[in-house]
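JOB MANIFEST
job_type = single_chain_structure
chain_count = 1
residues = 347
[input]
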Amino acid sequence: MTLAELPGDLPPMGGSVVDLTPREKAAIVVRLLLTYGAVPALTALPESKQTDLAVQLARMTPVDQDTVAAVVTEFADEIERIGLSFPTGLDGALGMLDGVISDGATARLREMAPGSFRGNPWDDISKADADRLVPYLENEATEVAAVILSKLNVSKAAEILGKLPGERSRRITYAISQTAGVSPTVVHRIGVSLAEQLEARPITAFDDGPVKRVGNILNYAQSSVRDDLLSGLDEDDKVFADDVRAAIFTFANIAERIAPRDVPRIQRDLDQEDLTLIVAGASGNDIGSVEFILENISKRMAENIRDDAKEKKDAPEDEIEAAMLRVVGVIRGLEAAGEIFFVAKEE
């Protein structure tokens, strides 16, 4: 609800606002908005201003209708005279420029005004991934970690507990029982501190980590190239090589990583000629994925593909592998778009 939507039957201006303070006028406007069901965005104000307004509301005595009309008219005139409004503080400016300036510029501006975090820090914290929050709960004092966990939604809190060492999880869980007496001010300070630490994360040149980047590259490499590179990585860094293997999705992984219900969706985007080539020339571990696909599409289509494949038994190996890479590309595209989901690998 806006001021323009307030009832038009307010009494004509007859009172005087000369003797009213700005706080009293603000209290009258807020009280009037609340009376008619409007909810002003007071949380955007600094907490000191919110406190001052609440105190002023508590001190107010009844106000006559002429005075209310005069205050509203003055307030409306002030609003109409504003040509442009600007955000308050650096955080407000950065919010307005989000997506307009670079991440590097944003990081430098944050450094120019440390401790300037405004608004509700828990809104930003609740949006952070569980994996980002785990290190903070591992290193913070147990009591602080308990406060943080208590402010998160229950599903994310449970996910974080599952990622923490057992003893640490038990200590934090017990400490939650001791948080009843923590004041809102302390909770806010903890939130501000954590939110600022999350904001201070260094800007990196890549969106994904090295394991995922290497895995994505090898997903589209020929199997011989992929095997040679992984063998070389084994010699240089066995742990990294194993992590890359876990991140790779190849044609042979289809049977174990794709849910049967998603196969018809995948099949709609595939070139049937590619499936025919693959059925004709698949060998080794790839055969399991071929059978998996054929078992989860219509029997008539599967039979047609098998019949056509008989005529392509002599297809060159490089054509068959290229067809497999195209199928993998389609699957990864659907997964990235959220249309299908990979099944978690069994350890």
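[summary]
The chain has four domains: 3-81, 117-199, 204-248, 252-347.
The CA atoms of residues 260 and 296 lie 6 Å apart.
exit_status = 0
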